[in-house]
Specification:
Blueprint: H1 3-13, H2 17-39, H3 42-59, H4 69-125, H5 129-139, H6 145-152, H7 156-173, H8 176-194
Helix pairs in contact: 2-3, 2-4, 3-4, 4-8, 5-7, 6-7
Length: 195
């Protein structure tokens, strides 16, 4: 390291704020323009240069600079600029890929939901006629048990028996997990798309 550089570096390591400020003001523009050349963004360039200088000020006593201080900062600014560019590029790629991933996931989910809905309707179609009618009025039209009883001219007890029988049959024909999904999601959401 050049003698003058070495003297400045020693003072910065000893936390001589005046020396650090003078050095910063004298050399900031050169490193700022260097960072701008890579980043093409003044605010990012400013951030990079300030980070490098802050690192020198805060960790000066831990840093080992064999070459000149200018060369060290020059190299640090270039490295940080390149790293930032790579990070920005990765983030942009991720943002471009995410909508595709979400679209694919959403499409797969819709296909699975549609398949479950088809299986549900097939299982409901296999119920005895009166049982099916009660079940559909209860789950699809959201009628209360008394309303179903009045509409079909049967007792509430018969309505309850039909609903219980329908759920048992669906449990037999479809696994429990699917029935749970159907009763929570499909009746509320998917049924409207199949009307």
């Amino acid at each position: 390291m050049h003698q003058e550089d070495e003297s400045i570096w020693r003072k910065i390591q000893q936390k001589d704020l005046k020396t650090f400020e003078i050095y910063y003001k004298e050399h900031y523009k050169r490193f700022f323009l260097l960072a701008c050349k890579y980043l093409k963004d003044t605010s990012l360039a400013e951030e990079i240069v300030n980070d490098v200088f802050m690192k020198i000020w805060e960790d000066g006593n831990k840093l080992s600079i064999e070459i000149s201080l200018k060369s060290y900062i020059y190299k640090a600014v270039i490295n940080r600029s390149i790293n930032l560019l790579q990070k920005i590029k990765k983030e942009q790629q991720l943002q471009e890929e995410l909508p595709f991933v979400f679209d694919q996931s959403y499409e797969m989910m819709k296909i699975e939901e549609n398949e479950m809905a088809i299986m549900l309707y097939a299982a409901i179609d296999n119920l005895p006629q009166q049982c099916r009618k009660v079940f559909e009025l209860s789950r699809f039209e959201h009628l209360k048990q008394q309303e179903i009883a009045d509409k079909l001219g049967i007792s509430i007890k018969t309505v309850k028996n039909h609903i219980t029988h329908a759920l048992k049959e669906l449990n037999k024909n479809l696994d429990n997990y699917m029935v749970l999904i159907i009763l929570t999601l499909l009746f509320l959401k998917i049924f409207n798309t199949f009307k």
